[in-house]
Design a protein that fits this description.
With 188 residues, this protein is α+β, with helices and mostly antiparallel strands. Helix content is 55%, strand content 14%. It has a four-stranded mixed sheet with strand order 1-2-3-4. The C terminus is likely disordered.
């Protein structure tokens, strides 16, 4: 878990480091323990107002593919630098025409021990065609919880950030320069 300030610095680093013409707008930079995901908006293809949905869909898909191929070297150069600096893999994605497309990204294994009732839930999702495997079913459950508890999770993240700030001020924390100067004056 990183603080809001660390997240802002990370976003600022990418905003400053990415080539100006890479995205129309840097829309999102997210981070967890393993991965940083960078998403930007790219221009929509020009189509007639009354273009059929199939044509629009194919044009958007082609635009994303063209962007991915054309910018690969630039994105990978930034990713190598960021991976070295932040010790996390960098993944990329785009928004185009209201659609979000993620390129290759990390699928981190999660160790868990589930009892039979929890495994039965996952197996029911598989049998119902919602998921292909227990791993897919577990990811589906996490997305469902996330969708229905965004406010609660945001509050929890804020609380964790507060805990980190309080811990940083504990007895093992490095004293501020001002505190250090006050103690030095008292000793003389």
């Amino acid at each position: 878990m990183i603080t809001t300030e660390q997240r802002e610095k990370l976003r600022g680093w990418f905003a400053g480091r990415l080539p100006d013409d890479l995205f129309e707008e840097l829309t999102e930079v997210t981070v967890d323990r393993e991965e940083i995901t960078v998403i930007g908006r790219i221009p929509e293809p020009r189509l007639a107002e009354d273009a059929p949905a199939a044509e629009r869909g194919a044009a958007l898909e082609s635009r994303v593919q063209e962007f991915r191929e054309r910018t690969r070297e630039d994105r990978m150069a930034v990713a190598r630098e960021a991976e070295h600096r932040f010790r996390r893999k960098v993944s990329w994605g785009v928004e185009c025409g209201g659609r979000r497309t993620l390129f290759t990204h990390v699928a981190a294994p999660v160790m868990t021990r589930l009892r039979q009732p929890e495994r039965q839930v996952l197996d029911t999702l598989i049998a119902g065609g919602v998921a292909r495997s227990r791993s897919d079913a577990l990811a589906w459950c996490v997305r469902l919880v996330q969708r229905h508890t965004d406010d609660w999770l945001a509050e929890l993240r804020d609380s964790l950030e507060h805990v980190q700030r309080v811990r940083a001020q504990g007895p093992d924390a490095e004293p501020d320069q001002a505190d250090h100067a006050e103690h030095t004056d008292d000793e003389e």
